[in-house]
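stuck on whats below:

***
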Amino acid sequence: MDIAKWLMDIIPSEELLGVRLRVRGSSRCILCRGVRGLCGKPVCPILVKIYSHLKYSDSIRKKELVGSSPGIFVGRVGYPKVNIGPLVPPFIGDTLEYDTPEYWINKQIQEIVDFRSVLVRGKMLMKVKEVNHKVAEQLREIALARRAVDVEARFKDFPRKTLLLDDFEQPYGPSAKLVAFKTGNAPWDPKLEKVYYDHDLKAKDAIIYLYNHNILVSKIQKALSIGALGLKFQRKFVPTRWSITAVDSIISQNLIEEIKQYPPIDEFRVYEYECFGNVFEILMLPRAWSYESMEAWHAGTLWNPGESIAIYGDFEDYYGRNEYASIGGCYYAARLAVTEALKRERRQATVIIFREVHPNYVMPVGVWLVRESVRRALEKEPLRFGELASALKRIASKLSINLERWFKVSSLLRKEIYQRRIGDYVGRAS
């Protein structure tokens, strides 16, 4: 049976085995139906998710599930009342990898979608301050545990899967209203247990403590989400999407204050990395701390359905910034990776990130991709240059978009060039 042809006939009904489709630019998708490649992607992002759903639909389309939960979810719609619940697979085993983005960077997108598609997201509506509710206590057992926790979950209806494309959070699988659930026993991580029972420790200080004791960033984010951190009477649920950026921002800001005490690097450097259709070029200049992150989305990518390239970015100088970055969580995710690398070297620098997103980035998988890609790039030996022009020439050779267009967006690059003689660089670096 030609499954692509079969799906082509079924997709317009907007209903497939409990799958609801929500796609930007849906008119083009309806014309294409996953077989004409009108979006320019090598694989249809809708079909990637549907194939995964078909693979697991029989095992997860149940009103009762028993499985080993690797994590929890806290929604944001309706805040200060939000949906919270466990992520439950239909089997017992070691599923921790299924909700640990730090382990995904060398995976294929289909593998990641498979991980997420098999996790049913239980939903129960609660006020964000109800952190002492029995349900919250059970979810903390999952969020603070050292391994996946066995869970029995009962749902009101069959789990349904909504295909949402989000560049902030990792993909999420089917969801269903939670009637009841119970958890088995699992040992907590001792460091997480320590901060949970310290009711006089502020959330910011708890986050820094956990990070300094080698707790994974994604694990800290879960602890913050489920209201396990902070002063006793100020604790509350934090939507997963917000907790991701909050943790990245708090840790990197703390690292910035430390690296400002170190001397600048003494050369121009370029670091490079490619992943899932994303090209990262990272420029370090021998200057005091400042940071800029830019993104260029080619036409035909998910967030740029237009016909021209879209480039935008944000920056901060030595004294930081007062407003939330317009490019969102990716700014803080990359900043965390940058400050980690500078701390290891005990140096500071001006850092400019160029990120090109190409149409073969089939679907967004979350800001963790930026954090982990920049981490991998900065773990490599850099290309070293004695002058800015040579470093820019290298970057220009790796990017498909002319540097002149990046100059128009980059505040730090223009500042660096115009502080000197623009004639020293223009032409040679383009």
Residues 3-183 form one domain. The two ends are 52 Å apart (CA to CA). Residues 1-26 have pLDDT under 50 and may be disordered.
